[in-house]
Amino acid sequence: MLTKTIVIQNPFGLHARPCTFFTEKAMNFSCTIHLTKGDARINAKSVLAVMSLELVKGNEVTLEVDGEREEEALEELGRLLTDIYDNEEEGYP
Hints:
The protein has 93 residues and is an alpha+beta fold. The chain has a single domain (2-88), classed as Histidine-containing Protein, Chain: A. The chain contains three helices and four strands; from the N terminus they run E-H-E-E-H-E-H. It has helices at residues 16-26, 47-52, 70-83, and strands spanning 2-7, 32-37, 40-43, 60-66. It is globular, with a radius of gyration of 12 Å.
């Protein structure tokens, strides 16, 4: 199991489109993926669960991956949480 703590940088937080984009990427990995904010620990492959965290700029979230391709998942999903913006020009929703 690998973990990484990330501070959300998107000025708009993770609203519906970025959450959907993130969970779609998470579903590409067969490993178990969780996000933790405070006392809430959720399945990162569920759009509704990710949205329930109400992630806004400056929030600290822990990404936890366990299983096959966990290093790749941690790197890719961690980058998304750090860099995901609502800007189609940069390849994000």
